[in-house]
Write a structure and sequence with these properties.
It is built from one helix and eleven strands; from the N terminus they run E-E-E-E-E-E-E-E-E-H-E-E. It has about 130 residues and is mostly beta strands. A hairpin with a 6-residue loop joins strand 5 and strand 6. The longest helix is centred in the last third of the chain and has 4 residues.
């Protein structure tokens, strides 16, 4: 059974940084294109960043471009989201997602329907 386990969330002051991790178990990690989404209270799920399963190509959603960085360590079966210059509006539950695809299209990574596996979510709260 494939599992995605997220960690690294918490409470942080505005302007500070956090790094989220998502470890995949049960299947070869390079099978998956990976992404991070978030969902704030009473809002829909929002695409943040995606990374190709091979080659390291990355894609970002508008709200976090320039502040957040996605990366992956295939040897550790882990994808990361480095979040800098955090703002109170970044407060949300953050989810990692995995899909068995390869694409070089940013629009493709932003679609929730292409991901078949989701983590349980980790809360990030940014205080002002």
């Amino acid at each position: 059974q494939v599992q995605l386990v997220e960690s690294g969330g918490g409470l942080v002051q505005a302007g500070n940084s956090l790094r989220l991790s998502c470890t995949v178990s049960g299947r070869t990690f390079t099978t998956y294109g990976m992404a991070w989404f978030r969902q704030a209270p009473e809002k829909g799920r929002e695409f943040l960043a995606g990374i190709a399963r091979i080659g390291g190509m990355t894609f970002y959603g508008g709200p976090v471009k320039g502040r957040f960085t996605i990366s992956r360590d295939n040897a550790k079966n882990t994808v990361y989201l480095q979040m800098n210059s955090l703002k109170p509006e970044d407060t949300a539950v953050y989810y990692c997602a995995a899909g068995e695809f390869y694409s070089s299209s940013a629009g493709f990574y932003a679609q929730e329907r292409v991901y078949t596996l989701w983590g349980q979510g980790t809360q990030v709260t940014v205080s002002s």
